[in-house]
Design a protein that fits this description.
With 318 residues, the protein is α/β, with parallel strands linked by helices. 41% of the residues lie in helices and 18% in strands. The chain is built from 14 helices and ten strands. The strands form two sheets. The chain has an eight-stranded mixed β-sheet, with helices on both faces. A two-stranded antiparallel ribbon has the order 1-2. Helix 3 links the parallel strand 7 and strand 8.
């Protein structure tokens, strides 16, 4: 068992927490895009791939795994590269490559295509995968996530969105954010999760401890923030400009867009209007009284919206 030192010098375990949390689902690893990825799966039927955001891991979808399986779907929640039970690779955290992780996982699962459901960073990657590999994405559902081009624009021009995402600027410093994330048993992770949840839906202590433990695994503290470093640092670089140009191509699959009206991190006004990049039925739902984590703040309501949309053979533009 390995250990690290906190800034105060106390030792704490980094490997005692098992991200393969028991439940009605099963756990296994799959290979995709040169990496090994941990998944939790439940149910039989059309594949629905659930992609978590930050600072979380697959467990954020625990409620939706059971709801989707009960509704006749094969629900699979994945740990992103560098998080949970998946590989911590030294590189590969740009969105184009992480989107290929997702489409590679779909192929590894033996499915011709899948519904991609992404939250936060997972939504950003799901948007990307739907553009890059449209044949593998049957439908797209995103929560607490704006289309990448819209988010890029807001981060450069909207003062309120820039202020709301000030943590992204803090993550650009070398090594300091990593130390802060795991200090005092990752207390900062608990603060983020609490502050970004709408009043009245605060996470319980068990959930907070679970996410705090997960951040202390191996090198999660570094790997999990690498996508955000790329996001900010690439804005004026050729790779970032190339990615932005690539994302001009419209999404051509039915899209469900769920967003908390009280989201303090990614503002509703930033997410609204992402439908301009969708040339297919697009359904926007603004969730009253919900913050940045709708799948956990109102799991029944979120699951109901998702399942009803999946069951609709011809989702319209409502």
């Amino acid at each position: 068992m390995s250990s690290d030192r906190t800034p105060g010098g106390a030792h704490r375990s980094t490997d005692s927490f098992d991200p393969r949390i028991e439940g009605p689902w099963s756990h296994r690893d799959v290979s995709a895009n040169g990496g090994r990825f941990h998944i939790a799966e439940l149910g039989e039927g059309p594949l629905v791939l659930l992609v978590h955001g930050w600072p979380q891991f697959w467990w954020t979808w625990r409620h939706q795994l059971t709801a989707l399986a009960d509704a006749g779907f094969r629900a699979v929640a994945v740990d992103l590269r560098g998080v949970g039970g998946s590989d911590r690779t030294p590189r590969g955290y740009e969105p184009s490559n992480m989107a290929l992780d997702l489409t590679g996982i779909i192929r590894s699962l033996g499915a011709p295509n899948a519904v991609l459901v992404g939250h936060d960073l997972g939504g950003f990657l799901a948007w990307t995968a739907a553009v890059m590999r449209p044949a593998l994405v049957r439908r797209l559902a995103v929560a607490s996530s704006a289309h990448p081009r819209r988010y890029r624009r807001a981060l450069m021009t909207d003062r309120k969105q820039i202020a709301a995402a000030d943590h992204l600027l803090g993550l650009q410093r070398p090594w300091v954010p990593e130390r802060q994330l795991v200090a005092d048993d990752a207390a900062l992770v608990g603060e983020y999760l609490t502050d970004w949840t709408a009043p009245g839906h605060q996470p319980d202590e068990k959930a907070l401890l679970t996410y705090r433990h997960a951040m202390q695994l191996s090198n999660t503290r570094h790997c999990s923030i690498e996508p955000y470093r790329w996001l900010m640092r690439s804005m004026g670089r050729p790779d970032g400009l190339q990615y932005a140009r690539r994302m001009r191509r419209p999404v051509r699959v039915p899209t469900l867009h769920l967003h908390g009206a009280a989201d303090p991190v990614l503002l509703a006004r930033t997410a609204a209007g992402s439908g301009e990049y969708v040339e297919a039925p697009y359904r926007w739902r603004l969730l009253d009284g919900i913050g940045h984590y709708p799948q956990e703040e109102d799991p029944e309501g979120f699951s109901r919206e998702l399942v009803n949309w999946l069951r609709d053979p011809e989702p319209d533009r409502r």
